[in-house]
Each structure stands twice: as C-alpha cells, then as structure tokens.
Amino acid sequence: MKESILIARQSFHFEKSLKFLVIALICALSAWGVYWAIGLAVDGSSWLLHILRFNTFNDWDKVRLFANWITQLPVILALKYGVHDINLLIRIHSFGLVSIPSFFWIWAMLVQWNSDRFWYFLFAFSITYLNSGFQSVGEYNICYSMVALSASLLQKDTQLKIRDYLILFFLSIALTCSYESMAFLGVLLYFIAISRWLSSKSICREDSSFARIMLLVLGMFYAMSVAIGAWFIVYPRLPSQLADAENIGPALTSWPGIYSLFILFIYLFSSVSKNRHVKNIALGLGTIASIGYLSKPSCWHYFWLYPKFRAITGVVLFFVLFFLSIRFFYFEQNQNEEKTQNHVHFISFLFFLSLLIPFSFTTRDLGQWFRQFETEVNSKIGLIPWEASSLSSSKLGKTFACDHTNASLSVILRQDDTKAIVLASVTYKGWQPFDPKIKIYEIPRHFTKSKTLFND
Is 2 a member of any domain? Predict the structure, then answer.
C-alpha cells in the first residue's frame, strides 16, 4: 500500500515537472521567434511597412479584422507612446504575431493545469501551431489559439466566475471576424457552450440564471462567426487564396502530415481504451515514431509547407476539441470511470518535442536569411535585380525568398534610403505591395535605425 502511494506521488510530481517544462519551452519558443523577427516572413514586412507609413492597423481584410487588430495592437501602442527605433518596432511586431497566440495557448493549458485535459490542449497546440504557425502573419494562428482558450474555459471543472464570462465574451466577439475556419470552429464552440448550459447544474454545482444567459449570448456570437466564416468561404474575396488553403494534398501526403495523423490516431485511441496493454503499445509506438521523426531531418517541415497545413490543422483542432468536449460533458460528469493512466499522455509530450525542435531550427534559419538580406541591401545602393544579388545563390534564399515582398523587406532592413532595394526575380509577374521601379514606399524620416537588426 505504501509502495503504491509512493509511486503515485512520484508520478504526480513527474507530471507536474513536465507541465512546467512545457510552459517554459513554449515561452522560450516565443522569445526565440521574437529575437529572430519571424514576423517579417512573407507578408510580414509589407504589413509592418504599412503600419509605419500610416500609423494605423493594416486591416484591409474585413473577415479577419479583429485578428489583425489583436496581433498588431502592440506595435500600434508602441507608436502611440513614441517608439521610433525600427529594430525595436520589428521585434514588437513579431511579439504581437508570435507571442499573443502563444500566450492564449499557454492560458488554455493553465486553465486545465490540474486535469489530464492539459495534455490534450498541448496536443492541440502541437498539431496546429507547430504544424502551421510558422508563417506568423497568418490570422489562423490567433484564431485557433482563441478557439482553444474558449474551449478550455468552457470545460472548467468548477463554476465559471464573472471574469471567465467576460473573457469568453471578449473572445466570442473577436472570433466573429478572425478567420474563415470559424465556419466550422464556431459550430464546435456553439456545441460546447450549449452543452455546458444543459449540464451546468452537474458541472458548476449551481443553476445560475446569469450563467445560462451568458452561455446563450456566447452561443449567439458563435453562431454569428459561423455565418460570417461561411459567407466568405462561399463568396471569397480572394478566390486564389481560398483555393490554395483548400489544397490540403501536400500537407496530408508529406512526412509531417503522415506522422501527425498517426500520432493523432494512437493518442486518441489509447485515451479511450481501458486496456492497459493497448495504452502501453500506443506509448511504445508513439515513442518510436517521435524518435524516428526527429532522427530524420529530411522529413521535417520546410518553410513553404507550413501554410499548406492551415486548413487541415483547423479541421484537426475541431476533431480534437470535439472529442475532448464529448468526453468532458457526457462521460466524465456522468460516469464514475477509471481515470486514464497518466503515462499515455507522455505521447502528447513527445509529439510536442518532436515538432518543437524542427520549428526552432527553422526559426533560426529564417533569422539567418534576414541577416543575409540585411547585409546585402546595406552593402549596395540603388535597385538590384534579384538575379544580380548574392541572395539568389544563397542556400537560405532557395528556402525563404519571397519575390513579392523583396522590396518591402529591403525598405524595412536597410539603414537609410540611400541603401539598396532588391527587386523581384524577372520571371515573377504577380502582385507586390509596391513596384520600386515606379515608386518606393519609404519609411517616414522620424523613424531611426542606428545599427543592424542583429547587431553585426
């Protein structure tokens, strides 16, 4: 008896230690992304240039209006309070795009700190953010994190307090105009809110009229988000972008996609199984798969694969959170089931690590690309054709170069307006924020840049 109590106590402390480690690693990943300024990737440089030129939000995409307001708010506030150092503003811009979604994910996990649901939310973070979140300007990052936080708050074991409802109310409004995936994720949140309303007596231990009214109000906003998301799917403002998001083939057939779906299956299957042998086999398979994936860098994500996951990860997020809500509302509350053995949740931790490490390496490589780009534009003058620059032969350039934002990235990274601007390749005929051959969008002169971004 004493031995079993000791083992249980050691298991409890080990699990708590892993949870602390998870939170610390997500915070470190966020800081790592801010340092390497990954908010400049793809359209990020043109977004920041717009904000600096007009001193306001870059919010032209109305279906994602609130998502952009939330992530761009830090740099807007910095401008309001007189921050003029461009390098600092670059990192504040990255902070808004990277750290705010990470903060919401951490919050969602902390709400479930004393529950094994913590590990399901970690799994949801891994399979969404660590698969699709690298291009941080994607509004789906903040959307998915707000959905996760909303779902976590609605699945608290205790009575929701007034501050919880205020947070949920804010999130429900923000989600109405955040991303088109709310067409189905809004259905999920509506289901969770109504399930809590119907089950509020057993979960909250009270039948509060205020709680029921608030849950109905939340349901109304979730329904609104479904309508808005569905409208912009049926009538997209950029049909080509919608078609690209719907092209999930490259994601599903890639090694990261196959690996993620395999782990998804064995983790959820072992979670519902009552057979200890099944759980042990699942843990073994998950461990082997995670180690195997990490040992083959050639199978890891490459830069342009991350956004291919944005639609499929939204669907997987729906599935994981729906599974969790069914388990919470209709099984945990009504049946005296044996709790899932905690060791099976080590699969979630291993999966997290196996995607975190490649994500971190790609972050560093992207930062090195920005360093090369910055060196190039500050060592020359005038307009430089892409093919005539040293960047065109760079190994990092073959991975991270983005024709349509070469000019805006040049403006952001060069020391002053006498330095060079790198043009798009001669074969590129698509859209650009501006054509430097016709007119250059300069940063207003009251902004300063006394040194390079990485202090070289």
Answer: no
Domain that holds residue 100: 14-364
Q: What size, in residues, is the chain?
A: 456
Give the type of residue at 104: F
Triad 100, 74, 26: Cα angle to 5° = 25
Coil/strand/helix, residue 429: coil
Query: Which residues face 421 on adjacent strands?
Result: 383
- Tens-binned pLDDT, residue by residue, of the chain (456 aa): 555 555 556 566 788 999 999 999 999 999 999 999 999 999 999 999 999 999 999 988 889 999 999 999 999 999 999 999 999 999 999 999 999 999 999 999 999 999 999 999 999 999 999 999 888 998 999 999 999 999 999 999 888 999 999 999 999 999 999 999 999 999 999 999 999 888 765 665 556 788 889 999 999 999 999 999 999 988 887 777 667 777 788 888 999 999 999 999 999 999 888 888 989 999 999 999 999 999 999 999 888 888 888 889 999 999 999 999 999 888 765 444 445 456 788 999 999 999 999 999 999 999 999 999 999 999 999 999 999 999 999 999 999 999 999 999 999 999 999 999 999 999 998 889 999 989 999 999 999 998 899 875
In order of 78, 104, 205, 241, the CA distances from 56 in angstroms are 11, 24, 46, 25
d(CA 413, CA 372): 10
Whether 167 is covered by a domain: the verdict is yes
Does 393 map to a domain? Answer: no
Q: What angle do CA 95, 101, 204 make, to 5 degrees?
A: 140
- The answer to whether residues 258 and 205 touch, using CB atoms and an 8 Å cutoff, is no
How far is the C-alpha of 344 from the C-alpha of 160, rounded, in Å?
A: 29
Give first-to-last CA distance, the chain, whole Å. Answer: 62
> Rounded CA gap, 118 and 373, in Å?
41
Phi, psi of 334 (to 5 degrees): -110, -10
295 inside domain: yes
CB-CB contact of 365 with 306 (8 Å): no
Yes or no: say if 412 and 434 are a contact pair by the CB < 8 Å rule: no
The total number of structural domains in the chain stands at 1
Which DSSP state fits 151?
A: H
What is each CA distance from 201 to 152, 211, 321, 333, 415, in whole angstroms? 18, 10, 22, 11, 62
**C-alpha triplet 214, 215, 221: angle, nearest 5°:** 90
